[in-house]
């Protein structure tokens, strides 16, 4: 039995926070899921699975209306799922047997680090390093909120200049902080080795790269990509650090194919 089971739409860089950490820590993580639109036909549960057509009728009492990302969709969530995941969102993680639910990708990643703390110092060497790591994770939530609004608006065709400007400002604040933290020639955000802070940064950065797939859409609106080609000159340490992480043995299985696909869409 896996140490942790995660149910989510796939692919999802925020799930990869946990799978990358698991490779460092020797923790077994099981991931279940499907592309976002297919999750409408899944039973949302610790034992998540595709529904048979006849079950959509027999389990109709479990139907709930989706919100963020699946707004208005009819989703089949068990009472046990809602007890373990009170906000009803994915990624949704569970301890063995589904008795304990863990939600929010940074918290799921922290759970992996705690489970593997005897094999890794991903969560720092002491309380001070752990707290500094938490600082980066908390800052990432602010960026993640604006980036999610932006990416959902792009995918839904509702993006406008105001949403774009807010996302651009959020990225500039986040990237500037990462740039400063890596000065002058640091190769990790906290301490001397990679930590949860670096994993979170790589996952959130790669998710934001979905903007590349919407370049034509932005052009028609008279808007530039936030990740335009020259942006690397503004944040050279940030982009170099991301490039190093994508090639790292524990990051590469998840991130490299995803990043390469998005860069190809950008024409880079």
From TrEMBL:
One Gene Ontology CC term in the entry: cytoplasm
Record-linked SUPFAM superfamilies: GST C-terminal domain-like
Domain GST C-terminal as annotated: residue spans: 126-268
The protein's name: Glutathione S-transferase
Organism, as annotated: Bradyrhizobium arachidis
GO biological process, one term: translational elongation
InterPro entries in UniProt: EF-GSTs, Glutathione-S-Trfase_C-like, Glutathione-S-Trfase_C_sf, Glutathione_S-Trfase_N
UniProt domain GST N-terminal: residue ranges: 2-120
